[in-house]
Each structure stands twice: as C-alpha cells, then as structure tokens.
Amino acid sequence: MNAKLEKALKRLKCILPLQERQAECSRQIRELHQHVLRSFVTQGRILTREEMAQRISNLEDAINVLRESELMVFSEEGMPVGAYPFTIEVREHKVRINSHQVYAMCALDALANSPMFGMHAHIVSRCRITGDPVNIQQSGKTIENPNEAGDVHLGIVWGAEETDACCANSLCMEMMYLRDSNIARQWLEADLENREIFTLPEAVEFASEFFIPLTR
Asked: 112-134 pLDDT, tens per residue?
C-alpha cells in the first residue's frame, strides 16, 4: 500500500473506526455483527430483529452497542437498515453477489463486497458528474472487465463528514464514481482542500484494507 492510501485509510479509520469498535464488543456481539454482514450475501438482506434475537442473549443491549458504535444503522423506529458496507436503502450503487442484489452505502463500500467474502461481484452504478453508467466485474481484488470498467475513478469529499450525523448519511453520500481521469481531475480541482481521487485499483485496495478485517 502506497503512502497516499495509507494516509486515506488512517483518515477514514479516524472518522469511522469500525475495526476498533468491533474489537471492543463482546464476542457474542462481534459474532452477531459478522452474521449480519454475511446475511447480505447469503440471503440478500439484513437480519431481522427476530433473527438477531436468536443469536444474542440480550437483544436490546446488543442493538444499543451496535447503534452507538455505528457498526449498524437503524431506522428511527429501531429497525436494522444497514451495516457497512451494506444497506437495505435504495442507493445508486447496486451490487450483484452470490445471486443476490444488494445496495452499498457508497462507491468505496461497493468495492469491498467481493474481497470481503471471496465471491464474484458485479457493481452497477453511475458517474456522479456525467451520469454515465459504471459497470465493474470483480473477483476479490481483481477487476475482471478492465476494458468495460475503463478509467473509472473514486472520488471522496472528506469535508462531507458531519459530527452530528452518522457516516451513512453524511460522508458516504459523497463517495462516488467518476467516469475517467479527466472528469476526476476537473472534479478534484474544484475543491482541492476537501476532495481526493483514487484510481480503481487504488480504490479496491483501500476498500479491502478497511473492510476485510471486519469478517475475521
């Protein structure tokens, strides 16, 4: 991993320290979180509260821990709606994995699905600037359709972080695909202080390093 990626990874971990927070959980809650993550690729959806209750001795305590640590995202009614990198909310980043279509919280998260579970994934999204389609076939860290995927870049608006909003509804909303290097550079130059871009291989490495530890 190059210095640029190391710096970005450290920055994201400071904003959203998922690995650290998961490690602080009890073994039972940590395993529950991992079951929730796997449910997206085994069932194509998040576990229900009832299904979660079957795996934990005190569901409400577990939910409080998972919500406060932001390992999971819940609706105002207390229903589970997401666990990074997945969400049941309809978002612009669709991922086909293990015959299920799921949604990713953001463009970076979508690239984590295949490396996390060792399964082929097909990402369908769009360039945030031009609206052009983005199609990425992925097997682990390998892009299987480099010609079709082209010169897609990942863009992050670091300044989108909000201290009073969960990352799913702030920074995640400003992690996007950009059609090619020219579009990416133009986008970057409009706000050099708050924006950063990554090539597709860099983005895959970034996503893998951030998310794979959550499954171990």
From this structure: 999 999 999 999 999 999 999 99
